[in-house]
Amino acid sequence: SVPLGYFGGLGAASRNGILIKGGNYLEALNHIDTFVFDKTGTLTKGSFTIEKVSGNNTLELAALLEQHSNHPIALSIVAHYGSENLSGELDQVEEIPGKGLRGNYSGKELLVGNARIMADHKVDIDSEDYPGTKVHVALDGQYEGAVFIKDEIKDDSRDLISAINSEASSQTVMLTGDQRSIADHVGNELAVGETYSELLPQDKLAHVERLAETGRKVLFAGDGINDAPVLARADIGVAMGALGSDAAIEAADMVIMSDQPSKILVARKIARKTRALVL
Ligand code: ADP
Ligand code: MG
User: Fold this and answer.
1) Which family does it belong to (predicted)?
2) Best mutation site among 39, 40, 75, 231 for ligand 1, i.e. most ligand atoms within 8 A of its Cβ?
C-alpha cells in the first residue's frame, strides 16, 4: 500500500497537467532507469505538412480513407484536404497498425499507407527518394501515387532527451514503426541512445519486454492505438493526451495533458519531493 502523502503528489501532478492513475505509479517514477519513446506524435509534432502529391486522385482518395483514422498522419491529411470536400461510398474500413488503412470504395479495394501495406497487396510503388514519409495510395490493385509529408521534432523533446542523457544511470530508447532513414535522422538529432525502426506493434512490445527481462525499470511514452499493449506492459506507461488515441490514454498509467513529453521530468520531480515527505 502507498502512504496517504502520495495523494498530495497526485494533486501537484494534476495541477501541472499530468494525470497519474495512482500513488504507486508516482512512487515507481523514482526507480525508472530506461526511458523509451515512440517517435511520431511523442518526440515529433505529429502534425505533418503536405509537401507534394503525385497522381490525380491520390490526395482525395487518401483523405477519404484517412477520415476513419486518428493516426497523426490521418489527421494531417484530412485537415489539409478539408473534410467538407469528402464524399463517396466507402465501407469495410480497417486500420492496419504500423502500415495504414484499407477499405472498400464503390466496390474497389482502396489502400493507403506505407511500402509495407503495398507489398502485402502486391502493389508496385514508385521508388523516388524523399527525405520524409510517403503515404502511398492504390485503388483496385493499381498504384495511384503518393502524398509526400513531413513531420518536425518538438523543441520540448530536445530538452527532455538531453536532460535524461546527462544522468549517468539513465538510458534513452526510441521505438518506431516509421522507416529507418527518418527514424535514424530523428534519433541522431535528439541524440537518443538507441533507435529501432520499422517495428510493428508486437515488435515494440518485444523490445520493452526484453528490457524488463534484463532488469531495467522501463517507462514508455506513446500516443497511438498500436502503442496500447506497450503502455500496459511498461513499468510506467505514459500517454500523450493532447493528440493521443483513447486506447493509449486508457492503457496508460500516466497521461500528459499537453504535447510536452518533458512533463515526465516534472512528474519525477514531484515524485522525489513526495517521497522525501512521506519517508
Ligand atoms: P510510430 O511508431 O512512429 O508512431 P506507427 O507505428 O503509428 O508509427 O506507424 C508506422 C508507419 O505506418 C507510419 O510511418 C506510416 O508509414 C504507416 N501508417 C500507420 N498508420 C497510417 C495511416 N493511418 N495512414 C498512413 N500511413 C500509416
Ligand atoms: Mg505513434
Assistant:
1) Belongs to the cation transport ATPase (P-type) (TC 3.A.3) family. Type IB subfamily.
2) 40
